[in-house]
UniProtKB/TrEMBL annotation:
Organism name: Candidatus Desulfacyla euxinica
Top-rank lineage group of the source organism: Bacteria
Entry-linked Gene3D superfamilies: Vaccinia Virus protein VP39
Molecular function per GO: methyltransferase activity
Name under which the protein is recorded: Class I SAM-dependent methyltransferase
UniProtKB keywords: Methyltransferase, Transferase
GO biological process: methylation
Length: 223
């Protein structure tokens, strides 16, 4: 099956318009930390795009990540963003009940040994970077996001891939992002729940969601 943008790049047919990563950031020199990709991590190319956008964030603002997993993206956000930014990263607590059913094939990302496991190696060598990261625990569908409303320059949505969660996480992200801030979603075109939810939201809300070409990232910059 031929898919728009790149043959074989996606598992589902995608309908959101494409945008070059170069239109999302002015950065052209990008550094990446933690190159090793575990099952469940984003691709290096996607991490580079996110790092570039994080570097553009206004100093002193917050970045919010839904879905910590092993902390690889959280670390990169902390290293890449300006020095006075704070990174808040939300993950399920161990054995926590969820409001909506999870996709069975993503349970290994929930039943991990430790959330944010990659942080430990940097606690001594880069304590000022680790101090930017604030781990939060809860179900993203019932979490109280109100302290973060309208104050986040970047929100990265990479929690559960179940349709109901993507809808819920998306509306939470829209409340948290500040004016002229950015929301990025992961796994568009890869997980059916993500693809369906984002395309339905775009059809309903006309937000201007765009797929960053060559990636499974969806990008929105608010007015």
């Amino acid at each position: 099956m031929r898919i728009r943008n790149k043959e074989g790049n996606f598992l589902q047919q995608i309908n959101l318009p494409g945008i070059s990563w170069r239109h999302c950031t002015n950065r052209r020199i990008i550094k990446i930390w933690e190159h090793y990709k575990a099952n469940g991590n984003i691709r290096i190319s996607e991490l580079g795009v996110i790092n570039a956008i994080a570097a553009d964030c206004e100093d002193g603002t917050n970045l919010f990540e839904i879905g910590t997993f092993d902390g690889r993206t959280s670390l990169n956000l902390a290293f890449s963003s300006p020095s006075n930014n704070s990174i808040y990263t939300l993950d399920l607590a161990p054995k926590m009940d969820t409001l909506f059913p999870l996709v069975s094939s993503e349970k290994h990302m929930v039943e991990k040994e430790k959330s944010g496991g990659r942080f430990n190696k940097y606690r001594k060598s880069d304590s000022s970077i680790i101090s930017k990261i604030h781990q939060l625990f809860g179900d993203s569908a019932s979490f109280d996001y109100s302290p973060y409303y309208t104050i986040c320059s970047l929100v990265f949505v990479d929690g559960s891939h179940a349709y109901e969660y993507v809808l819920s996480d998306t509306y939470a992200a829209m409340k948290m992002v500040k004016k002229r801030g950015v929301i990025i979603w992961h796994d568009y075109g890869i997980w059916e729940g993500v693809t369906r939810a984002l395309e339905e939201i775009e059809e309903k809300e006309k937000l201007g969601l765009k797929n960053i070409r060559g990636t499974s990232l969806v990008y929105l910059k608010t007015e």
